[in-house]
Design goal:
The protein is of the alpha/beta class and about 240 residues long. The protein is built from eight helices and twelve strands. The termini are far apart. Bound molecules: calcium ion.
Length: about 240
């Protein structure tokens, strides 16, 4: 049995089709994961809160409370457990909405188990990585600082929590400060996708980050828009 390397080897499968759910349980258990199944959105939400899984596999089409709602509620509550959503075929809008709501990855149905296992491993590995900067706390001039250990921005005596992707984007921008970074590069290097139906995901995340790091989000000093391409982080010593 291959015991997964990571500490939290609990997989919560939120899936209403019993055959699919049991198939996933069987295969994840073979891989050394501990598995629980929630057959609907409400129980999925309860298990995600109480059991503290290392990853949630979340079907979007659920009776009652849908998968997207479950995801939105968890993120709103500040639960950042990695979530891989299962989307129906040809439902690109669901993929976009899911990523917007804070999913870490998606796998379209029907999928191969090998692919799902690989995605889950990658998501868990990413979530266990430190953000890879030498310092945990980076000062943005004298006005703000980013704490990559606590996932928060502190500015003007207030702390603003960062989602994992917001922190990843900031880290990526800081590591490339002064350079223009295209939306496609963000998708490739932060999300790990070569193709996404829209790059709006990047813009929406950046808009949220600006509200945290910028004094005036409409006139950003730190994260500049490079029209038609992407964004550029001001050099940290500068403004
Ligand atoms: Ca379903």
């Amino acid at each position: 049995m291959n015991k997964p390397e990571h500490e939290n080897a609990r997989v919560l499968v939120v899936e209403d089709e019993p055959q699919m759910a049991e198939g996933l349980r069987f295969n994840f258990e073979l891989e050394g994961y501990e598995v629980r199944i929630a057959p609907d959105g409400e129980s999925g939400l309860a298990e995600a809160r109480a059991w503290a899984p290392g990853v949630v596999i979340l079907d979007l089409m659920l009776p009652g409370l849908g998968g997207l709602e479950v995801l939105r509620i968890l993120r709103k509550e500040g639960v950042w457990t990695p979530v891989v959503i299962l989307t129906a075929k040809n439902q690109e809008a669901d993929v976009v909405a899911g990523l917007e709501a804070g999913a870490d990855d998606y796998v379209p149905k029907p999928f191969s188990l090998a692919e799902l296992l690989a995605r889950v491993r990658a998501v868990v590995r990413r979530s266990n990585q430190t953000l890879g900067l030498e310092q945990d706390v980076i000062a943005l001039g004298s006005t703000a600082e980013v704490d990559f250990r606590k996932y928060e921005v502190r500015r003007g005596g207030k702390a603003y929590p960062l989602s994992r992707f917001e922190a990843e984007i900031l880290r990526y921008l800081i590591s490339r400060q002064g350079e223009v970074v295209s939306r496609e590069e963000f998708l490739r290097d932060v999300w790990g996708y070569s193709i996404l139906p829209t790059t709006r995901t990047v813009d929406n995340h950046v808009a949220r980050i600006r509200k945290k790091v910028e004094e005036s989000p409409d006139q950003p000093v730190w994260i500049q828009t490079v029209h038609g391409i992407g964004y550029r982080m001001s050099e940290l010593g500068k403004p």
